[in-house]
Amino acid sequence: MASLIKTIGFNQSRKSISNFLLRAYSSNTEVPQFETLAVSVPKKNVFHVELNRPKKANTFSKAMWLELHQCFSSLSNNPECRVIVLSGQGKNFTGGIELNSLVEMAAAAEELPDTARKARFHYHFIKYAQDGITALEDCVKPVLTVIHSACVGAGVDLVTAADIRYCTEDAWFQVKEVDVGLAADVGTLQRLPKVIGNDSIARELCLTGRKFDAKEAKEIGLVSKVFPDKDSALNHVMELAVNIAAKSPVAVQTTKMSMVYSQSRPNPDGLEHVRLLNAVMNQGEDLPKAAMAQATKSPPPEFDNL
What we know:
Blueprint: H1 2-26, E1 37-43, E2 46-51, H2 62-76, E3 83-88, H3 99-110, H4 115-138, E4 143-147, E5 150-152, H5 154-160, E6 164-168, E7 172-174, H6 188-196, H7 199-208, E8 211-213, H8 214-220, E9 225-227, H9 230-245, H10 249-262, H11 267-281, H12 286-296
Parallel strand pairs: 2-3, 3-4, 4-6, 5-7, 6-9
Antiparallel strand pairs: 1-2, 7-8
Helix pairs in contact: 1-12, 2-4, 3-4, 5-6, 6-7, 10-11
Keywords: Acetylation, Fatty acid metabolism, Isomerase, Lipid metabolism, Peroxisome
Subcellular location: Peroxisome
InterPro entries: ClpP/crotonase-like_dom_sf (IPR029045), Ech1-like (IPR045002), Enoyl-CoA_hydra/iso (IPR001753), Enoyl-CoA_hydra_C (IPR014748)
């Protein structure tokens, strides 16, 4: 206990400078603005990102792939942001990839002179789209998703890259790519089996392209809970986001980083990774502050942004 108090005292002596610098930085922090995404801050340290093409069923255009990457990369580095809630405006979460984008991409590739150059064009376009989805996974802030009505194709790619998923009773899902003549190439084939923990079901869904509803999504573990409607789902998720945002951002972000890293690696590699992370991050002020509050049964402390 004495060492904890000493550590807190030492950290407090540094805070006047660090808080001044943090305030100076935060005062210049702006909510990012995009064409295909709407970003708001409904609660302290909670950012709400909405797919914002409701007249197009929130389908993925070329601009949306890019803006997803820009948005989540920006929020990952924004100290004011601790948790992200992702949802969709309008009648559907998303209808998947905009078919016009596929047609335009194919037409552009056909204008190239030979197979090698066409292949390189396709390769870079796929990587461009993958980067937009992987940005959710690379973002060190937890991403909580609310899915309503249709979640098709690229929508499944998107939500499987998030951390926690909830949906409404009217939600339905479909790994649609096989029906339009291609293998899903933006993340579903890699992430869905790990998310639901059942390779057989994942392969069935990806090979048949069949629709499945909210009840089945809950049964197979794709979503944590099903809500009657979008409003009740968002209310619950906002409460959860506020709860997470009040915790140590050091602990929360390190937890996500370790879980993402360990998801596709052997346990010894994951254990080494978290050892290295905590060897550094445990030297900050969050651990002694939280430990002191727990030891003295005090109210949860307020943590500085990270």
